[in-house]
Design goal:
Largest sheet: 6 strands, parallel
Number of domains: 3
Number of strands: 16
Low-confidence stretches: none
Order of helices and strands: EHEHEHEEEEEEHEEEHHEHEEHHEHHH
CATH class of the largest domain: Alpha Beta
Structural class: alpha/beta
Radius of gyration: 21 Å
Mean pLDDT: 89
Shape: globular
Oligomer: single chain
CATH topology of the largest domain: Rossmann fold
C-alpha cells in the first residue's frame, strides 16, 4: 500500500500544497496498489468542519480517487500502539532540552531543530521564531520532556529511497535522531494526553507506518512525502523498524513546488474562478516533477494549452487503460512516467498517438 504522513489541512493553500495528495493518487494507479491520503485532525490544530469540507471539495475537484483517512480515525489504535512501544521501555529517558517558548505556551520548538523545522506553530521573522497563536517571539527556556532513545544499531539502509540521492540526507537525519532521541511528551498542552502526559502529537502519528504495516502484513509499505518532512519520515521509519526489523518499505520523496510571481495568485479557488479545470491543475502539478532537485518550479506552460488538446490527452490515456492490460510499474518506472519530460511528450503526440505509449500516463487523470 502507498500512503502519506498526515498532512495539515490549510486555508487558501497554493497549488503546490496539493502535490502530495495528487502524487499518492497517481502512484497508486501506477503501482496498482491501495492508496491512502492521511490528513491531520489530532491535537490542537484540528481543522474546523468548514475547513475539512473545503479540503475534500478541492480533492474532488482535482480528481482524487484514493482513500482519505484522518489520523483521528486511528486515534485509539495509535494510543494502544504507543503504550505498547513506549510504556516501560528501557530506552525512555526524561531530560531537559532547550526550546523556544512563547508566553501562551503554544510554541515549544527545540533549539536543536529550529533552523530546519517546518513552520507549523511558528513563523520565522528575521532571526526570531514567532508563535502563530499569540504573535510573540519565542524565548529560549529549558523544558523537561520524555524521549525515546533509538537503539544505536538501528539504520534505514534496508529502506528503498526514491530518488536515491536523498540517501545521504536520510543517513544524516538518522544519525541525529540516534543522538537526540524522539520527543514523546511536551510540557505544554497538546490536545492529546495519556496517563497525565501531554503527548507529542507527531510522535503518536509517526506510529501510523507501523500500524499500517501490521494491518497489511503481506504488503510492501510505500511512504510518499515532500522533502520538507524528511525528518518526520525518518522518525516514522525508525520507530517501525525498531519494532519490526524485517519491515519492507519504500520512501518516495517529491520536490517542493515553487510558484512564479505572487504566491496568492496560485490559490486553487482563484484558479477555478479563472477557468482552470481540475484536470489542467493536476497536469500542471505532475508535470512539474523532475526528480533531480529539491525544488521544482510550477510547470505553468500547460495553462496556455488549448482545451481541445488537453481533453484529447485525457481521452488517449483513458483509451490506453481500456485497450490492454496495464502492468504495474516499478518505483523507478513510475517516477520516470510521472515527470515533466514524459508528460510533455504525451501532450505533444495527442494527434499522432502511435508515437507515444499512453499507458505510461496512467494516474495522470
Amino acid at each position: 500500500m502507498i500512503f502519506t504522513l498526515p498532512i495539515t489541512v490549510k486555508d487558501g493553500a497554493p497549488l503546490g500544497y496539493w502535490l502530495t495528495p495528487i502524487l499518492v493518487d497517481a502512484l497508486s494507479k501506477q503501482y496498482q496498489e491501495q492508496g491512502v491520503l492521511c490528513y491531520g485532525k489530532l491535537g490542537l490544530r484540528s481543522p474546523t468542519p468548514l475547513q475539512e469540507r473545503v479540503f475534500h471539495e478541492t480533492l474532488d475537484f482535482l480528481g482524487l480517487t484514493c482513500d482519505r483517512k484522518s489520523d483521528l480515525e486511528f486515534k485509539n489504535d495509535l494510543l494502544v500502539l504507543s503504550q505498547q512501544v513506549y510504556s516501560g521501555n528501557a530506552l525512555i529517558e526524561y531530560r531537559e532540552q532547550e526550546c523556544y517558548r512563547c508566553p501562551c505556551g503554544c510554541l515549544e520548538l527545540p533549539v536543536c531543530i529550529a533552523s530546519f523545522a517546518k513552520e507549523k506553530t511558528f513563523m520565522r521573522v528575521g532571526g526570531a521564531y514567532v508563535c502563530k497563536a499569540c504573535g510573540k517571539p519565542g524565548e529560549v527556556a529549558r523544558v523537561n520532556s520524555d524521549f525515546f532513545r533509538i537503539a544505536p544499531d538501528q539504520s534505514l539502509e534496508s529502506v528503498c529511497v526514491y530518488p536515491e540521492w536523498y540517501r545521504g540526507e536520510l543517513r544524516e537525519l538518522t544519525r541525529q535522531l540516534l543522538e537526540q532521541g524522539v520527543p514523546l511528551s511536551r510540557s505544554r498542552e497538546t490536545g492529546l494526553s495519556q496517563e497525565n502526559m501531554n503527548l507529542d502529537v507527531e510522535s503518536v502519528w509517526s506510529l501510523m507506518l507501523l500500524l499500517f504495516s501490521r494491518q497489511h502484513p503481506n504488503e510492501r509499505i510505500r511512504l510518499v512525502i515532500t522533502n520538507h518532512v524528511l525528518r518526520q519520515a525518518a522518525i516514522a521509519l525508525l520507530l517501525a523498524k525498531a519494532t519490526n526489523p524485517e519491515l519492507k518499505a519504500d520512501l518516495i520523496v517529491s520536490p517542493c513546488i515553487t510558484h512564479p510571481g505572487a504566491l496568492g495568485k496560485w490559490n486553487v479557488s482563484r484558479l477555478t474562478d479563472l477557468g482552470f479545470t481540475g484536470d489542467l491543475l493536476r497536469f500542471m502539478l505532475l508535470g512539474s516533477l523532475g526528480w533531480q532537485a529539491k525544488d521544482s518550479c510550477l510547470y505553468d506552460s500547460p495553462a496556455a494549452v488549448e482545451y481541445r488538446r488537453l481533453t484529447l490527452l485525457k481521452r488517449r490515456v483513458q483509451d490506453a487503460q481500456r485497450g490492454e492490460l496495464v502492468k504495474p510499474y516499478t518505483p523507478h518506472e513510475a517516477l520516470h512516467n510521472l515527470s515533466q519530460q514524459n508528460l510533455s511528450q504525451g501532450l505533444r503526440h495527442v494527434f499522432n498517438p502511435e508515437r507515444f505509449k499512453y499507458q505510461t500516463l496512467i494516474g495522470l487523470f
